[in-house]
Amino acid sequence: MSTAAAITVDGVSKTFRLPHQRYSTLKERALHPFRSSAIDELHALQDVSVSVEHGEFFGIVGRNGSGKSTLLKCLAGIYEADGGRMEVDGKLSPFIELGVGFNPDLTARDNVLINAILLGLTRREARERFDDIIAFAELEEFLDLKLKNYSSGMHVRLAFAVATQVDADVLLIDEVLAVGDAAFQQKCFDQFLRLKEAGRTIVFVTHDMHAVERFCDRAMLLERGRIVDIGDPHHIAQAYNEINFGRFVHDAPEGARYGDHTEAEITGGWFENAAGERVQALGHGEPVQVVMEVRFRAPLDEPVFGFTLRHDAGQAVFATRTDMQQVPTGRFDAGEVAIVRVTLDNWLAPGAYRFTPSLARAGAGTEALDARENLTVLTVHGTRNAGGLVDVPHAIVIERR
Hints:
By secondary structure, the protein is an alpha+beta fold. Helix content is 22%, strand content 34%. Strand 16 and strand 17 form a beta hairpin.
């Protein structure tokens, strides 16, 4: 394999020209000759430079309109950059707009073979891999059904299964997993990790900071078409939150706080033992409650309460939200106070764990009303530690034959 980087982007810029008035017919232009012909310029990418090494799982994050997808489309050749240089060392497979080439009037069988060939496989390779593609998509029962009768989830599963069979060195992935169900999303991530272990390079665009911290080796944060930072995934995830919550500081201090706090604020966070007593240290194996206190300043329906525990190394070892667990939270009026507890078996290995509580509006994703990074710390002590982040109850059985 070449010693060059898998992807090199040097000073790349891309600008879109957006007319105030768009004419679709000659008649419209003739009837309204004096309408404004002014044009706005949208600088989607501005002097972006980055390199991705061979075999690296590289994340790209940023708010909507920051230039993430534009960068991937420039790399894939869908858009032509206005300036700068881009090089890809190896065969490229873009996971962008999956299934665009599918014909809805053809069956899944025909679409798989046609698209596999269009993506670079020979007819023989397409036929040899056909069974693996269908098995991965779990669509054996719908093989001869026309694609126009597929659900959106079935459609993306089939498209993803075809795309992963292409013998590419570099994969560009643009939020393609948002449609599939949770089980299929995990299956896709498992496939990405297998591809990475095989030496493939993966560039992953997402809004999911948990996925960035879990899978990426490095990550890059974009804002208004410019690079804000490149580095450790946890650091980039924090920087993304700071921008997203409107209080970006390049190096956030410990205990940084995000959000405008106008409708509600987190007024406290602590840990409790089984007796309901506040504690800062707890023995390994003893039940623990993670608690946040929230005061509401304005009426709010179905607020989302979030809990994250991180080890000293910055890794998220536990995270949950009321919306993900389908816990109804109801309506809170101005002046009300909510005490929210998460009770869990303390399988945490000995060490220090930092609690970050967050509060968001229903349906707002990661845009928090308030989030307090590393608000408080719990020390778990114990005599047994095999080196893992958690010590899950388990049994070891030895058989002699």
